[in-house]
Design brief:
Largest sheet of chain B: none
Distance between the termini of chain A: 38 Å
Strand content of chain A: under 5%
Shape of chain A: globular
Number of strands of chain B: 0
Helix content of chain A: over 70%
Shape of chain B: globular
Number of helices of chain A: 19
Structural class of chain A: mainly alpha
Largest sheet of chain A: none
Number of strands of chain A: 0
Radius of gyration of chain A: 21 Å
Number of domains of chain B: 1
Order of helices and strands of chain B: HHHHHHH
Oligomer: heterodimer
Chain lengths: ~475, ~220
Amino acid sequence: MTELLNPATAILIIPTAAALLLTLISSYRIAAWINVAAAFLTFTCALSLLVWRPTGLGHLLQVDDLNIVFIVLNTLVGFTTSLFSRGYIAHELEAGRLKPAHLRFYHAMYQVLMGAMNLALLTSITGLMWVAIELATLTTILMVGIYRTHEALEAAWKYFILGSVGIALALFGTILIYSVAQPVVGNGLPAMTWSTLTAHAAHFDPMILNIAFVFLLLGYGTKAGLVPLHAWLPDAHAEGPTPISAVLSGLLLNVAIYAILRFKMVLARNPETIAPGPIMMTMGLVSIIFAGLMLYRRRDIKRFFAFSSIEHMGIIAFAFGLGGPLANFAGLLHMAMHSLTKSGIFFAVGHITRIKNTQKISEITGLTTSHPMLGWILVASVVAIAGLPPFGVFTSEFLVVSSAFAHRPLLALPLVIGLLIALGALFLRLNSIAFGEPSGSMAPDRMSPLPILFHLGLVLMIGIFIPGPIVSWFQHIAALLG
Amino acid sequence: MTVFALDMSHFLAGGLVLLSFTLLYQDRLPPLINAYAIQSLFLSLSVAWQAQIQHAPHLLVTAGIALCFKAIVIPLVLHRLIRNLRIHRTVETVVDIGPTMIAGMALVGLSMALMMRATSGIDVLAREDLAFALSVILLGLLIMVTRRNAVSQVIGFMSVENGLILAATGAKGMPFVVETSVAFSILIAFIVIGIFLFRIRERFDTVDVAILDRFRGERL
């Protein structure tokens, strides 16, 4: 029994226990605090994994250098989002958009979602990862539809159908991987375990591995919102509660990328397979340029930043597709920076839509005049997400672009064009939102900006100076990714 | 493994593909649901047969789920649902049947050519099951893209899922097959409940929003 209690299992047990507890709590204030406390505890357990890595986790779980980055990031943003969510939902209740019963459901679902994502990252079994990602998708679908408006239900429905197609394709890929591994490593669990799969990949039939990877890339690529499989993403971001938009953009997309990376590592061990890189780079570039162009036509502030997430997922897929130590390093760094910056932006958007009571970009103007603090935070966040110095996103984008120029100069050109297109759109919209004559409600912002400032501070710190241990840690993982 | 065992699993899996074609051209909902029920029945027979020849009794659970839940309960619920929503008589404008069938045949040809050539290295039983399963999956996706109605989209998705269960049971000794089929059943149950809620909302919308607006106006 004592073997079961260690930081790794705690990351799964705490959210599960908290979810059960939260279904019993009817007061939303207490529930919100329990939510924050559980998220904080999970985060501290994840941090302790950095110094003490438990062994003897059995056959189902594993902690290695790759997933630990994702877990720490996941629990960190999960914690700050729970803080933001506490202020946000109180307001939703006041405005009458949500009922106390909805909030009880919301808090329990929040913990289920965190637990499912942690399981997807922690497990060493391909099939279990699939189940966990399906569970995470289901909970987010339920959360997206929580307002029960026509638009919210339609967004949830679209997410449902497209997410299910993605889930189906990913499962077929997982089954193919099993059936190609089964003749080599034998029946049962070993043929689904990451470590055995990577160890024996050289003996697998390369043709089936190729086909399996295409299915997995399409399946999990749907979850990651890569063009042309992105159609669910903007609606789901726009119609759901803002904390969920932050978690979707900042975390769930990363989990999907993690799944693709794991399978890419298996493929990389077999020299006769096709290189997965070019497919990922193509999908990445198409996502960057398409999302960049679509940014100009958005009228809704949450949809606007959702398209920016598609663009950044494209950059990440491109970086990992490019491969090599530098590009992988850049991809990992970009993923972390994007998670922090984008969830921070969604927090800020949550404050803005709360004050102005609208999501239309045209009805939000002059924010720096009416709400200087919030306005300048938004300006700084958009500067960060656009990839300008001194923020961390600049560092990672710079590394992606320079390694693209070093290895594939022809592909670097569309990459830079895509980045510039997006940059233009971001500043065009930022200009109207942040400056000019203020409009709409002038009510003061009563929510604490601390979570946003914390995220921005981290991104700024990485932009100016990346601590040595983080560099060597990320370099080590980048080498693993091949 | 005897020739008969192979032939039987071949026959049952082939039946699933054939029924996917019948799903493809039904333009009214009740026969579409019935065709799905028969496909699920074939799936449960096929899974039960796999349980027999692979000596894997736990697969009988999956077969049981397919029989009770997908061949009986879901079709009954859907029949009720379309009567409640008054869409049981509507004729869906499917894209022309001719081109759809040709596209379907092309997809089956593609999956056969792809899987039979690619999977020469693995067990003969798993290999044919995978080829048939991919056909069922692709045909199901084709149904999903050619339909506009939510209920027929769901039936398309459920036939995709039948294909997945076929593939999973064909892969010898795969863990989590039963868990996966349970997880899928839950997903489907959610989808069906979803349609129900979605449609109900749509019908009440005109009334509901007006009341809501006035209510808010009073409170603020």
